[in-house]
Structure formats: structure tokens, C-alpha cells
Amino acid sequence: MSRIVAPRSETTAHPAGTATPTSDADGATGEAASASERPADASADSGAQAGPAGGRLDAGLRVVPVKHWGRWAFSAIVAFVILQFLWSLATNPQWQWDVFAEYFFAPSVINGLWLTLGLTVVSGVAGFVLGAVLAVFRLSKSPLLNAAAWWYVWFFRSVPLVVQILVWYNLGYLYPTLGLGTPFTTDFWIVEFPTTTLISAFAAAAIGLSLHQAAYSAEIIRAGILSVDQGQLEAAGALGLPRSIRFFRITLPQAARAIVPNAFNEIIGLVKGTSVVFIVALPELFYTVQVIYNRNQRVIPLLLVAVVWYALITTVLSIAQYYVERRYARGSVRELPPTPVQRARRWVTEHWNRLGDGHTSAEPPPARPAPARPEPATSAAAAASDQSRTGGAA
Questions:
Q1: Among candidates 21, 5, 113, which has minimal Cα distance to 58?
Q2: Which of 111, 210, 227, 239 has the fewest CB atoms found within 10 Å of its own CB?
């Protein structure tokens, strides 16, 4: 952003020897008078240049960039805080970077990382599939399906995740055996198995995370479907398109623009939410790190190992989210947003060209000739000829 600084008001000499300042407040009379007194080629010799709106700017005007003092002050404070933190990371021996490097690729940590990723994939897929079904039930005209989906969402959003995992892990206390047989009885004559054997620690964690995630995914998908313009659905129905075509070819691609950001946000939260399964002694990433620092008392570097691995996973998911959102934005914007590589290349090219233009020449750019304006006499003659052509009628 820049602003134009005008020079001091010039003076016009009068025959009486007095000098009166000329400004825009003189109106059209002063302008006409000055135009009659100056020679015809004065505009070409005065060094004036064309303005942005077709007018002329005086050669004495100069463009001065606006100085954002508040922005510079806060930027300096933020830069100081970041540099101070980085300096403490490099100089404080309590971080124990040697211990961090020793355990970052430890086999137990890598195994816990794979278990975390497995729980995330299983729970995310199952949660969003069940959430899509619940979202369709919420939008259904059936009172039973609508009420059942509402009560499901209400219940699993009300109960903490840790409680759900513990209930599934200890389900054998409520139901020692599960199976198939005569309805409303415990006669499992088709198949029967003990509950404690069926629901292991991994199964309890996966079931709890999936059911918990489904409640939130259902609302995300329902909101995305409702964001689609109903006029398009009515037009598709008027054309006689089948319901499946309307949903998968019209509703879902447009709803994905609203679903994808929130869905990735939930998946990133699910990655970190897997850390609560330590309650059932499942050796995922955080539980493995806990076991190690309880043994060697190196708490900070071991926690830093878990933090860095979680940050790497979320970074990969954030990059994937950017490209998925960019793909689904094809039908809503005229030009796709540039990728980080394209943005960096454009920034380098722009600043390189600006650096070269700033030192090529110290002289101001040549003034462009002002657009020719019709003389008042010409305009009056044209008006008289038009009036005579029409016979003087108004």
C-alpha cells in the first residue's frame, strides 16, 4: 500500500503583481481561465503524466509507501520470542538432545507408532462410514430413524472417551458370553464365545474410538449435505434423475467442500486421541514413551520424542488436506489457489524483478502524453450542428 504526497500549492502570477494560489477549489472558472492563458503545447512541456483515471498527475508528486509501525513492532516482538525460544533449545542442556536422538528411532517407539497409526486408520474409516449412515438417518423422513440417530449422537457425545473404552474393555463383567441364538434369551445355540476373549485391549480401543468418532462425523457430514443449494436438487428431481445419481453426482461432490476441512480436523484429533488408550495398557506411542521414562527418569526428552512424532503425522495430514481441498475447489473458484511451491516461486520471481528494477536508473520514468481533449469551440460547433440537423427541436 502506498500514498501520493502532493507538493505545496503553486502560485500563478497576475498582471497586477500579486500572486494567488491555485487549487482545486477554484472550480471550473479558474480552470477554464488558466487553460485560456497557457499555450497550446504547455501540457506537453510541463512534464505532466497521465493519471490512473485518465487525468494528469503533476511530475512533482511522489509515491511514498505507507509505514505500518504497529505491524512492524508486533513482528519484531514475535521474531524476538521465536529466536529466544530457539536459542534456549540449542543452549539449555536439560533438553538432553542425545537422549532424544537415542530413542527417536528405538524399536519399541516405532512399534508404538505403527499401533497408533493402525488405531487411527481403523477408527477413522469405521467412524466415518457409520457417521455417514447416521447422517442419512438424521435427514430421513422416518421418525424412528431420525430419533434413533439423534439419540446416538447425543449419547456418545455426552460420555467421555475414556469411559467408553473402559466399558468396552470390561464388558465381560456385564455379559460373560455373547453369541447368536433365540432372540430375547441367553440360549446361544448357533454360536457362543466368552466376551473377555473376544474383546481384547485393541478391540476395546478400536470400538470405543470408532463409536465416539461416528457421533461427530455424523454431524459433520449432515452439515455438509445441508450446505448444498436445494434449488439444484429440485432441478435434478424435475429432470427425472434417479435419487442415487442426485446424491453421488450432485449433492456429495458439493458437500465435500464443507466436509473435507472438518473431516481432516477430526482425523488429526483422532491421532492424538489414541493416546487415551493407555488406560487399557495398549502399547501405542504415548504408552510406550511412558514406560520408558518411568524406567530411566528421562521425562522431557522422551515426551519430546512423542511430540515430534505426533507433529510429523499431523503435518502429513495437513498437507494432504490442502491438496484435497484444492481438488474440490475446482468448481467453486475461477482459478485454483497456488500450491506452496508455486507461491514460493512467484515470491522469488517478484522480489527478484523488483530488486532489478530498483537500481536500473535513478531518473524518473518518461511522462506519457495526456489524452487529447476536445476544445470547447469544437464541442459548441458540434452541438450547433446537431441542433440544426434536428430542426431546433429539444
A1: 5
A2: 239
